[in-house]
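Practice problem: predict the structure.
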Amino acid sequence: MAGKIDAKLAELNIELPKAAVPVANYVPVVISGNTAYVSGQVTVLNGEFKFQGKVGQDFSAEQAQQAARLCGLNIIAQLKNALGDLDRVKRVCKLGVFVNCAADFTEQPKVANGVSDLMVEVFGEAGKHARSAVGVNVLPLNVAVEVDAIVEIA
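Answer:
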């Protein structure tokens, strides 16, 4: 039987991507006590990299919001893989959003709303979180956005 969050994903017509396998010396999720730490998730969709380039140069802020949303879908996929049941998510506590952007780009918070809005859509009140949104000069594989997460779990 599907849980509440799986039912919510179905209602929103959201299909989670396959959880990406690490490409370096780290694990996707570390669980310590009642906290899950999700490693930075990038703009990969079932093994294919999307949104490679700089925001404010190759992508608009609106396009980058979709990139951030994809990172969020990957975070949820990693949580499902690690926890088995997304109903174990009690609270999305903090998101760190990194935007690969042109030097004069200043709309990082707007880009970050792509993942923030997704977390609230999926987890409701429990999806409201603290957040950092920063611009960086480059990200791995030249992806436009990377997001990591700290999540309270049951």
